Amino acid sequence: MLDIFPPDRTQYPAKKADGTLDIDLTSGKYLKLWQGPNHPGITGNMSVELTVCGDEVVEGKTHVGYLHRGFEKLMERRTFIQVFPIVCRVCVPEPDFNEYCYAACVEELAGIEVPEMAKWIRAMILEMGRINSYMMYLGGQAGALGQGVIGQWTTYVRDLMLDRFEELTGARIYHMFILPGGVRDTLPDGFAGRMEETLCEVEKTLKDVYDVMFCNAVFKKRTVGMGVIDPSWLEPYGVTGPNARAAGVAKDVRKDSPYLIYDQLDFEPVTGQNSDIYTRADVRRRDVWVSVDLIRQILAKMPKSGAVMAPLPNVLHWQIPRGETYVRGECSRGEYGYYLVTDGSGYPRRINVRGPSYTHAMALLERMIVGCNISDVAALMVSLHTYPPEIER
Amino acid sequence: MSFKDVLSPFTAWKHLFHDPVSIRNPIGRAAAPRYRGFHQNDIEKCIGCGTCETICQNGAIDMVPVEGIQTKQGDSGLRPRIDYGRCCWCALCVDVCMTKSLNMSNIYTWVESDGDAFRFIPGVDKKPWDDAAHGYRRPDDHQLTGPTRLREHMPEMEPEERIGSFAEIVHGYNVEAAKLEADRCVSCGLCVATCPTHMAIPQYIKAIRDGDYDLGVALLYETNPFSSICGRVCTRKCESTCAARHEGDAIAIRWLKRHIMDQVSDEQIKKVVGQPAAPTGRKVAIVGAGPAGLTAAFDLAKKGHQVVVYEALDKPGGMTRFGIPEYRLPYDVIDRDVDVIRSVGVDIRCNVRIGQDITLERLKSDFDAVLIALGLQDGRGTRIPGSDQPMVRKAVDLLRRVTAGEDIGTPRQAVVIGGGNVAMDIARTLARLQKKQYGEVKVILTALEDLPHFLADADEIKESGEEGIIILDSRGPQQVVIENGQVTGLKTWKVKAIFDEQGRFAPTYDETDEQFHPGTMVVEAIGQMADTSLLGDALTEQLAWQRGRLQVDAGGRTSEAWLWSAGDMVRGPDVVSAVADGHRVAASIHAAITQGVQQ
Amino acid sequence: MRELYARLKALYPLGELTEQRKNLAFVTVPAAHLRDTLLHLRDKEGFTHLVLLTAVDWLEEGQFQLTYLLNNRALACDLGLRVLIQRDTATMESIHDLWPTAATYQRELREMFGIDFPGSPRIEEEFILEGWNSIPPYRRDFDTLKYAQEAYAERPGRVTHDPETHMRLQMYPGQHPAGK
Q1: Which of A362, A365, A393 to mutate to probe the C interface, most C CBs <10 Å?
Q2: Structural domains of chain A, ranges and CATH numbers in brackets
Q3: Which of the residues A36, A288, B310, B478 has an alpha carbon 20 to 30 A from that of C175?
């Protein structure tokens, strides 16, 4: 087993026989501190129980459960179509991956072929969601280091993208648009033009963000060389997405095992080398450019017309034969997947949501936080880009 | 790190003089046209089927009665009330709405201090967005309740093949086709109220989906011991109130019923139906072994009463056997249903004519109760000149003779008067006989009604046409033409109107539009009446009558306490109505004779 | 996938291979051989990524199914190892030393399904549920609706009507078909 401590352990608490740390709080040497659950430096409600020695963290334990709604259990009690409106609620900033992965699982087990047009629309929605998610991240990452203005700008472009979501899907946050069988509707008239305007605005803001956040002495000082994920940790800790790509590994499900129509699009996964907070932020910033380009490609290449919904049986008593499958996609934080088990009844036997935050915010964060300065904890946590609801569902 | 990194952040200041991008007051902001906001419901269109409530995964919808909306056939009178404390705006309710009455407006902002105000009935509780032009409407190919059309048309014989014989035309669904058809049902239950005998339709359709045919049979027999027969010839009023007809075709409820009966063996049906209750020692006589009489017999026998059914003809079944042609309802199907009725202890005695072989008085003294369910066995006549000729015949009489195997002297050319199912039955029967005997079909059918108002089923009209029968609508019969003592045809005038301004039957004709339809036989199929001569003069005098029919109470009891009457003779001609009547009368008789036991 | 299965089958007593897609398959492994199979897959076959570890409750069959889903990125294929364990004893060997991140999954399984993984770090600690007072909630015999009804109050004023029943009461009250 990997030792979660670096070799030099002189300043850290001793280990007891059972492997836990011997922290004697009465010694006055250590202090317990809660980061969260509503600390502004955390995306979502999660907390880290820190043990500090001076201003250095010697132990961190992630605590989740503040957003637990028991989704996986709720899904077991709903028919296959009734599950569709609740899956998106697993993840607020990027709900569409839940809709896509769930729909794809059901389609696979029920043997439904999705119309071509629906695949293109799905891919576009996923890229739109990715931009939004990154926008929230950039604001959060800058905010964690005291740069409030970045958050204002990114929120603005996110809102513009939400306008596009609104006119396409009929909702801003929880779109409930991708459902088993396809998508609800086609693109509204003039959508491509308005999307192009929004994409231009995204690009403009990205340039501003680059100037103010990335070409910033303070930001660099605080993030370059900070919070390094060693490439050797990637597999043991199940690191995926930008966190892995910043360590130089071009892990990207869109490329590794293309889904929907990604094999018909032209793009390269964005990677970095240094694997520190700065690189991870930079990988994500550059990934937004990729998404902007992908949306343009999709709008240019997608069919001009066609059905968006496959014929479904009567969903009121839809039964799916016994089987199990796993469908994954590349969300803004890494590998997102749904594991669906059916038993021939009208209800799912089991659904397991595999969110990237599950590994990133738990074992990985607990590993990385040791030795970190208290004032850097927020920046470190945000840099892993985690959303607690994925962990507790 | 460079000098640029110190200066670059100051470029943020260039935004200092930009206008704010936020909206000052978001209340009332116009949402996108397809935004999913507060619901709109067209309560005139809504039929209260509750499919929206069924699909709602949040439990946000209640079906509630609304003042001013009456419960009626095909409309439960309930309307959805939505609790916006639960609604998640997923619009599945809109997606499955069978009438497309439920939609969502694009209005989503509403400020209100009373939390309970957010629970209301869209369309009934008036809201500012009721008339909003935009919002979520179900896109055209967004169909979640399965195909709107019949999954598979009932397989049947081709016209050329069927015209040559009396073999059953319709083949029946196989298991797979039945499952597909059953899958279209949304289980709303609106049909149950329309069915005269209130069969558990959604439940037995579910049994087909689940492949549980024993349960299906049990459900059928709860309300209808004539399920094999009704599965073929029912007037299927239920299908006229099916929620699916708002989207496309109604569910083929009749064929699904037949499918259940087709799937289960005779022995298994008897096992499912079970044995009667312990004998009560009470005795009931029933006159007439048609659907009403035998249904009552079945119910009473199951309750443990001793039941004897007297039938004047040589086989039980009544009009189902002697009125409906074999190609629509094969005789062995009737035998099958009757056999199950016998299995619960009903004693059916054929060839016994009450009034001749045994008197009604005798039944009165030998039994605790007597039920007469004679049916409508006499045809009505047109009374036009020439209609007293021997070659002017009544349809019911001819059909009875054909069933009995008698030679009716099939004419080479025939004219049928009437536009109902009986007219179609005799026309198609004559066509088959002509085809057999002479190799060609020459039947003309004339009716007062215009084609869209024919009383016959659309299928019957279509199939008659396919079989070579010429159908002439809006023709009023004037005279049977006779030359040298032989019928040569029928003279008709064009109908101008059938009813007068008060809605009374008073046809008017265009005398200038006269046609002659050649034929050596003219068949009248314009209605039936009961032959109640068995009652005898004294009893006829004693009994209360209403407009030519025996007057009965809700339970079918006549003004004489020992005598009940049921079926077509009191309800009008329809198998499933007769079955329903049989149940009603059986319950009334049971109550009366067991009350006697307690006294 | 078939070739991989043949190689594995020569080493371990595996169940039938279920090929769900061309790049996804599931196979049943006896609990005693799980560790060896995982090690072999990780170190020899390039299945280095533990995608997920979760459980399925086959209540009727008295078994829990543990699913260890492994991914080989180079081949872009996934293999799910199914391990069936007895529901009443519900214990399984921990694999936190193969993938540290498995400790989190095992903690969750212990809390949500009541499956024990002796030796797994902090396995005893509460993960998501604080002060839980019922059976492990993701077990099939835990009734969420019943629990919610007992634990929380309904909002008053809700009442609904079944269309079929309502129509009977309105249109033919008391006159119900025989047998009912």
Answers
A1: A362
A2: 80-392 (1.10.645.10)
A3: B310
